[in-house]
Every structure is written in structure tokens, then in C-alpha cells.
Design brief:
The chain is of the alpha+beta class. 50% of the residues lie in helices and 18% in strands. Strands 1-2-3-4-5 form a five-stranded mixed sheet.
């Protein structure tokens, strides 16, 4: 129903699910896309925190192992060092991910390898603005701009 490509910053929504969201009216559609954005932002923030925790724990363990007493560190000591370092981290120690706008594509519910989208849009969470067009409207414009 939903798939988000983190690298391209693009959301894919299947047509049946998009129809369900659109049935709530224009305001409901915008609220749904904003809710999806909030989930994506939460997930990216969680992933960033986990990477940050991992890097900080790894650095703390490296320091302990490279210390003069590093030869006598057990697995239990390593786990204690990791927990201690994680507990020391403050929320202000990491910059949260940047709020970014994203594209979304409404695609048919298909198992085919290559499908054309039904609709395409852009959502900017910082302003709440959303633009949506059918693929049939956009496709000729893309073909004209190709070299």
C-alpha cells in the first residue's frame, strides 16, 4: 500500500489505498499525506538515533579497549560500557534529520515489473502545500523537456 524510497525521497502509494484516502475529501487527503510524512519523519529520526547510539557506543568501547586496562575487558564489561555511554547521551547531542519535502506517485496495484503511475505529486511539510497531477497531464511535459 505504501513504500518510501529514502534515497530518492519518494513515496509510492497504491491506487486502491490512494482512493481510500481521497474519499475523505481534499482536506482529508492532505491530512493523510501529512500523517504519512510524520511517520516517515519519525522512522528516519529513529534510524538516525540508532546510528548515532551505535557510533557512540563503538567509540566508547574502542577507548576502553585501547586503555592500559584494555586487555582485561570482558563481554560483560563491553555491554556495561555500551549501556553507560547510551545513558550519557542527551537529546541535544544529535541534530535531528532535516524536514524535507517529498514526491509521491500513485501507482496501480500491480505485480508487473514496470508500471506507469496514475498520479504524481509533491508535498512540502514545512508549508503544508501539496501539488497533485495525473500522469497523463505530466507525461507530455516530460517528453518535451527530454533532449
Amino acid at each position: 500500500m505504501l513504500s518510501f524510497d529514502d534515497k530518492a525521497h519518494r513515496l509510492f502509494i497504491t491506487q486502491p489505498f490512494a482512493s481510500l484516502l481521497m474519499a475523505r475529501g481534499a482536506e482529508g487527503w492532505v491530512n493523510s499525506i501529512h500523517g504519512i510524512y510524520q511517520y516517515i519523519n519519525w522512522r528516519q529520526t529513529e534510524q538516525a538515533w540508532e546510528r548515532f547510539f551505535h557510533e557512540e557506543e563503538l567509540e566508547a568501547v574502542r577507548k576502553a579497549i585501547n586503555s592500559p586496562a584494555g586487555d582485561n575487558i570482558s563481554r560483560d564489561d563491553i555491554e556495561r560500557i555500551k549501556r553507560t555511554r547510551r545513558a550519557e547521551i542527551a537529546i541535544t547531542d544529535m541534530e535531528p534529520p532535516k524536514v524535507e519535502s517529498f514526491e509521491f506517485l500513485i501507482i496501480p496495484d500491480s505485480t508487473e515489473a514496470k508500471v506507469e503511475p496514475i498520479g504524481i505529486g509533491h508535498y512540502d511539510p514545512s508549508t503544508g502545500e501539496m501539488e497533485v497531477a495525473t500522469w497523463e497531464e505530466v507525461k507530455p511535459l516530460i517528453r518535451r523537456s527530454e533532449p
